[in-house]
Design a protein that fits this description.
binds zinc ion, elongated
């Protein structure tokens, strides 16, 4: 019977079971090679270590962005604030591409990380477009 590697999502005949620890919870995964095992466990360790920073970065961007929006609404229609609201989480996702465990389970860790970065990039692009419209087009 073939199994899918939890990291690269390739099918393999001899997957190896491994245990991962994230936020005090253990979860079992199957990997196709020692290379995937190392990359996956390194990533989970990185996620475990930086998860709080990731959440904090998003929260700070949202709060700061809202404050700047209201403060500058008469100056730039809130353009700078909106830029912060989208840029902060976008950058956070590129540095810490942590998506939901369901996404990792469904597409494999490697693709999930890629999706996280793309989502971050999309966020940043939306921010730039909004900023451009509010700062350059509307006035
Ligand atoms: Zn693999």
């Amino acid at each position: 019977m073939t199994h899918k590697c939890s990291w690269c999502y390739r099918e393999s005949l001899d997957c190896k079971k491994m245990e991962l620890q994230f936020r005090d919870q253990f979860q079992e995964a199957e990997v196709c090679s020692t290379e995937c095992e190392k990359t996956f466990s390194d990533f989970v360790r990185y996620a475990d270590k930086n998860f709080r920073k990731f959440v904090l970065l998003i929260l700070i961007s949202l709060v700061l962005g809202l404050i700047v929006t209201f403060w500058r609404i008469k100056i730039d229609y809130g353009a700078l604030g909106v830029l912060i609201i989208f840029m902060g989480p976008g950058l956070a996702l590129i540095k810490y591409p942590f998506v939901t465990p369901q996404t990792v389970e469904r597409y494999g860790g490697k693709k999930a990380v890629f999706f996280g970065r793309v989502l971050g990039l999309v966020n940043m692009l939306i921010g730039v477009v909004f900023w451009f419209v509010l700062a350059k087009v509307v006035p």
